[in-house]
Amino acid sequence: MEEKSNKLPLFRTKEAKGKVAFRVFSTSIFVGICLIWAYRLANIPRANERGRWLWIGMLFAELGFGFYWILTQAIRWNVVHYYPLKHNLSLRSDDPILKGVARQEWTRGGCNPEV
């Protein structure tokens, strides 16, 4: 059976606004995380000081949070929004039910199927 090749897009992609402001904000947070790591590493309590293991535990917790934050920035660095093109859905499909859905007129009170 031969499949029909439809080239109509179902979504329109737009880049998010405010990328520069977000990148400046993210960079400042990254610098803050690095400064916290440097402080924790430079001021580890000596072997017999009270709270040494708590300090080391906090260092590992902050390292884990920092690495998680860096990994999740890859997703947020280039934000795009997808807007569906509903009229193209009915044109791409041969299903009569889908064609009927696209032809319905949406009114304030709901859907008017008689149109």
Note the main attributes of this structure.
single chain; alpha+beta; 4 strands; 14% strand; membrane
In words, what does this structure look like?
The chain has 115 residues and is α+β, with helices and mostly antiparallel strands. It has a domain of 74 residues. 57% of the residues lie in helices and 14% in strands. It has 4 helices and 4 strands. The strands form 2 sheets. It has a two-stranded antiparallel sheet with strand order 1-2. A hairpin with a 2-residue loop joins strand 3 and strand 4. The longest helix has 26 residues. The chain is elongated. 0% of the residues are buried. About 5% of the residues have low confidence. Keywords: Membrane, Transmembrane, Transmembrane helix.
Structure at a glance:
The protein is built from 4 helices and 4 strands, in the order βααβααββ. The protein has helices spanning 19-42, 52-77, 86-92, 96-103; strands spanning 11-15, 80-84, 105-107, 110-112. The strands form 2 sheets. A two-stranded antiparallel ribbon has the order 1-2. A two-stranded antiparallel ribbon has the order 3-4.
